[in-house]
Specification:
The complex is a heterodimer of chains A (111) and B (111).
Chain A (H helix, E strand, L loop, with lengths): L4 E3 L2 E4 L5 E6 L6 E8 L3 E9 L2 E5 L6 E5 L5 E5 L8 E8 L6 E2 L3 E5 L1
Parallel strand pairs in A: 2-11
Antiparallel strand pairs in A: 1-3, 3-8, 4-5, 4-9, 5-6, 7-8, 9-10, 9-11
Chain B lengths: L3 E4 L2 E5 L4 E7 L6 E7 L5 E8 L4 E4 L2 E6 L4 E6 L8 E8 L6 E2 L3 E6 L1
Parallel strand pairs in B: 2-11
Antiparallel strand pairs in B: 1-3, 3-8, 4-5, 4-9, 6-7, 7-8, 9-10, 9-11
The chains are: A mainly beta (111), B mainly beta (111).
Chain lengths: 111, 111
Protein backbone atom coordinates (compact mmCIF):
# COMPACT_ATOMS: atom_id res chain seq x y z
CA UNK A 1 0.00 0.00 0.00
CA UNK A 2 1.47 3.35 -0.99
CA UNK A 3 2.21 5.80 1.79
CA UNK A 4 1.28 9.44 2.10
CA UNK A 5 2.75 11.48 -0.73
CA UNK A 6 3.37 15.21 -0.79
CA UNK A 7 4.25 17.44 -3.70
CA UNK A 8 6.36 19.31 -4.32
CA UNK A 9 9.13 18.25 -1.98
CA UNK A 10 10.92 21.59 -2.11
CA UNK A 11 9.77 25.09 -2.93
CA UNK A 12 11.45 28.46 -3.01
CA UNK A 13 9.22 31.53 -3.11
CA UNK A 14 9.60 35.23 -2.45
CA UNK A 15 7.69 37.35 0.01
CA UNK A 16 4.21 38.29 -1.14
CA UNK A 17 3.77 35.30 -3.42
CA UNK A 18 1.33 32.49 -2.78
CA UNK A 19 1.92 28.76 -2.74
CA UNK A 20 -0.16 25.59 -2.99
CA UNK A 21 0.97 22.30 -1.49
CA UNK A 22 -0.60 18.94 -2.24
CA UNK A 23 -1.09 15.79 -0.17
CA UNK A 24 -2.35 12.39 -1.27
CA UNK A 25 -3.37 10.21 1.69
CA UNK A 26 -3.09 6.47 2.03
CA UNK A 27 -5.85 4.76 0.08
CA UNK A 28 -8.97 4.45 2.21
CA UNK A 29 -7.96 7.17 4.67
CA UNK A 30 -10.51 9.95 4.87
CA UNK A 31 -8.82 12.23 7.39
CA UNK A 32 -5.99 14.51 6.32
CA UNK A 33 -4.19 16.85 8.72
CA UNK A 34 -1.57 19.51 8.02
CA UNK A 35 1.24 20.59 10.34
CA UNK A 36 3.93 23.24 10.20
CA UNK A 37 7.31 22.40 11.67
CA UNK A 38 9.93 25.03 12.49
CA UNK A 39 13.01 24.78 14.70
CA UNK A 40 11.64 27.32 17.15
CA UNK A 41 7.99 26.28 17.44
CA UNK A 42 8.16 22.57 16.77
CA UNK A 43 5.16 20.87 15.19
CA UNK A 44 2.07 23.03 15.07
CA UNK A 45 -1.33 21.92 13.84
CA UNK A 46 -2.78 23.83 10.90
CA UNK A 47 -6.05 22.09 10.03
CA UNK A 48 -7.75 18.76 9.56
CA UNK A 49 -10.14 17.67 6.85
CA UNK A 50 -12.48 14.70 6.97
CA UNK A 51 -14.75 13.81 4.07
CA UNK A 52 -14.18 17.20 2.42
CA UNK A 53 -15.09 19.15 5.58
CA UNK A 54 -12.73 21.04 7.81
CA UNK A 55 -13.06 19.37 11.19
CA UNK A 56 -10.42 21.22 13.18
CA UNK A 57 -8.41 24.37 12.72
CA UNK A 58 -5.26 25.52 14.46
CA UNK A 59 -4.26 29.00 15.48
CA UNK A 60 -2.92 30.31 12.19
CA UNK A 61 -3.88 33.47 10.27
CA UNK A 62 -6.40 33.40 7.46
CA UNK A 63 -3.57 33.43 4.90
CA UNK A 64 -3.40 29.70 5.52
CA UNK A 65 -6.25 27.75 3.96
CA UNK A 66 -6.95 24.27 2.79
CA UNK A 67 -9.40 22.01 1.13
CA UNK A 68 -10.06 18.34 0.54
CA UNK A 69 -11.39 16.74 -2.60
CA UNK A 70 -13.80 13.86 -2.98
CA UNK A 71 -10.91 11.44 -3.48
CA UNK A 72 -9.51 12.59 -0.08
CA UNK A 73 -6.55 14.37 -1.64
CA UNK A 74 -5.90 17.66 0.09
CA UNK A 75 -4.28 20.95 -0.75
CA UNK A 76 -3.17 23.78 1.45
CA UNK A 77 -2.61 27.30 0.27
CA UNK A 78 -0.60 30.10 1.81
CA UNK A 79 -1.15 33.57 0.40
CA UNK A 80 0.99 36.68 0.80
CA UNK A 81 4.00 34.70 1.96
CA UNK A 82 6.13 36.03 4.80
CA UNK A 83 9.69 35.11 5.75
CA UNK A 84 8.34 33.37 8.87
CA UNK A 85 6.37 30.95 6.73
CA UNK A 86 9.59 29.14 5.86
CA UNK A 87 9.10 25.69 7.34
CA UNK A 88 8.62 22.01 6.72
CA UNK A 89 4.95 21.39 5.99
CA UNK A 90 3.80 17.91 6.90
CA UNK A 91 0.64 16.11 5.96
CA UNK A 92 -0.77 13.12 7.83
CA UNK A 93 -3.60 10.76 7.03
CA UNK A 94 -5.61 8.39 9.17
CA UNK A 95 -8.78 6.35 9.13
CA UNK A 96 -10.42 8.34 11.95
CA UNK A 97 -8.74 9.02 15.30
CA UNK A 98 -6.45 6.12 14.82
CA UNK A 99 -2.81 5.86 13.88
CA UNK A 100 -1.54 8.86 11.95
CA UNK A 101 0.77 8.34 8.99
CA UNK A 102 2.92 11.19 7.79
CA UNK A 103 4.26 12.10 4.38
CA UNK A 104 7.84 13.21 3.69
CA UNK A 105 6.92 16.88 3.88
CA UNK A 106 7.34 19.92 1.68
CA UNK A 107 10.25 22.21 2.54
CA UNK A 108 9.16 25.80 1.84
CA UNK A 109 11.75 28.56 1.77
CA UNK A 110 10.56 32.15 1.54
CA UNK A 111 13.17 34.69 0.43
CA UNK B 1 -6.11 21.88 26.56
CA UNK B 2 -3.66 19.03 26.07
CA UNK B 3 0.02 19.82 26.60
CA UNK B 4 2.78 17.31 25.99
CA UNK B 5 6.28 17.51 27.48
CA UNK B 6 9.27 15.38 26.61
CA UNK B 7 12.32 14.97 28.81
CA UNK B 8 15.21 15.00 28.16
CA UNK B 9 15.47 17.29 25.14
CA UNK B 10 18.65 15.53 24.05
CA UNK B 11 20.36 12.29 24.99
CA UNK B 12 23.66 10.72 24.00
CA UNK B 13 24.39 7.08 24.81
CA UNK B 14 26.98 4.46 23.81
CA UNK B 15 25.91 1.72 21.44
CA UNK B 16 24.30 -1.28 23.14
CA UNK B 17 22.80 0.65 26.02
CA UNK B 18 19.14 0.31 26.94
CA UNK B 19 17.39 3.65 27.29
CA UNK B 20 14.07 5.24 28.22
CA UNK B 21 12.49 8.33 26.72
CA UNK B 22 9.81 10.10 28.71
CA UNK B 23 6.61 11.83 27.67
CA UNK B 24 4.10 13.51 29.97
CA UNK B 25 0.67 14.93 29.13
CA UNK B 26 -1.79 17.10 31.01
CA UNK B 27 -5.15 15.72 29.88
CA UNK B 28 -5.74 12.22 31.25
CA UNK B 29 -8.72 11.82 28.91
CA UNK B 30 -6.24 10.87 26.26
CA UNK B 31 -7.61 8.75 23.43
CA UNK B 32 -4.43 7.63 21.68
CA UNK B 33 -0.75 8.21 22.28
CA UNK B 34 1.61 7.75 19.39
CA UNK B 35 5.40 7.66 19.25
CA UNK B 36 7.22 8.83 16.13
CA UNK B 37 10.75 8.97 14.87
CA UNK B 38 12.03 11.80 12.71
CA UNK B 39 15.33 11.84 10.85
CA UNK B 40 16.80 15.27 9.98
CA UNK B 41 14.80 17.03 7.29
CA UNK B 42 12.44 14.11 6.85
CA UNK B 43 8.85 13.30 7.71
CA UNK B 44 7.66 11.41 10.77
CA UNK B 45 7.70 7.64 10.94
CA UNK B 46 5.12 6.06 13.23
CA UNK B 47 6.73 3.70 15.72
CA UNK B 48 3.99 2.67 18.10
CA UNK B 49 0.38 3.58 18.80
CA UNK B 50 -1.11 2.99 22.24
CA UNK B 51 -4.87 3.27 22.49
CA UNK B 52 -6.47 4.40 25.74
CA UNK B 53 -7.62 0.87 26.62
CA UNK B 54 -4.06 -0.44 26.31
CA UNK B 55 -1.13 -0.11 28.67
CA UNK B 56 1.71 -0.93 26.33
CA UNK B 57 2.77 -1.87 22.83
CA UNK B 58 5.88 -3.62 21.57
CA UNK B 59 7.62 -3.66 18.22
CA UNK B 60 10.99 -5.33 17.96
CA UNK B 61 13.42 -3.57 20.29
CA UNK B 62 10.85 -0.88 21.13
CA UNK B 63 8.35 -0.95 23.96
CA UNK B 64 5.99 1.90 24.79
CA UNK B 65 3.86 2.14 27.89
CA UNK B 66 0.97 4.42 28.80
CA UNK B 67 -0.14 5.34 32.32
CA UNK B 68 -3.14 7.62 32.03
CA UNK B 69 -3.52 8.10 35.79
CA UNK B 70 -0.05 9.64 36.08
CA UNK B 71 -0.17 11.31 32.66
CA UNK B 72 2.97 9.59 31.45
CA UNK B 73 4.24 7.46 28.62
CA UNK B 74 7.67 5.95 28.15
CA UNK B 75 9.46 4.59 25.12
CA UNK B 76 12.01 1.90 25.95
CA UNK B 77 14.70 1.14 23.38
CA UNK B 78 16.69 -2.02 23.98
CA UNK B 79 20.25 -2.57 22.82
CA UNK B 80 20.53 0.81 21.09
CA UNK B 81 22.29 1.06 17.71
CA UNK B 82 23.77 4.03 15.81
CA UNK B 83 20.86 3.71 13.37
CA UNK B 84 18.50 4.61 16.21
CA UNK B 85 19.92 8.14 16.22
CA UNK B 86 17.02 10.47 15.44
CA UNK B 87 14.50 12.73 17.13
CA UNK B 88 11.72 10.89 18.93
CA UNK B 89 8.36 12.60 19.29
CA UNK B 90 5.30 11.64 21.25
CA UNK B 91 1.84 12.96 20.49
CA UNK B 92 -1.56 12.54 22.07
CA UNK B 93 -5.13 12.81 20.93
CA UNK B 94 -7.93 13.74 23.34
CA UNK B 95 -11.44 13.35 22.01
CA UNK B 96 -11.92 14.62 18.50
CA UNK B 97 -8.91 16.92 18.61
CA UNK B 98 -5.80 16.79 16.48
CA UNK B 99 -2.46 15.41 17.59
CA UNK B 100 -0.62 17.50 20.16
CA UNK B 101 3.13 17.01 19.94
CA UNK B 102 5.93 17.29 22.43
CA UNK B 103 9.13 19.07 21.39
CA UNK B 104 10.91 15.74 21.02
CA UNK B 105 14.03 14.06 22.37
CA UNK B 106 17.09 14.12 20.12
CA UNK B 107 18.89 10.81 20.54
CA UNK B 108 22.48 10.15 19.53
CA UNK B 109 23.82 6.61 19.78
CA UNK B 110 27.60 6.60 19.66
CA UNK B 111 29.39 3.61 18.08
Amino acid sequence: KAGVTQTPRYLIKTRGQQVTLSCSPISGHRSVSWYQQTPGQGLQFLFEYFSETQRNKGNFPGRFSGRQFSNSRSEMNVSTLELGDSALYLCASSMTNNEQFFGPGTRLTVL
Amino acid sequence: KQEVTQIPAALSVPEGENLVLNCSFTDSAIYNLQWFRQDPGKGLTSLLLIQSSQREQTSGRLNASLDKSSGRSTLYIAASQPGDSATYLCAGISGNTPLVFGKGTRLSVIA
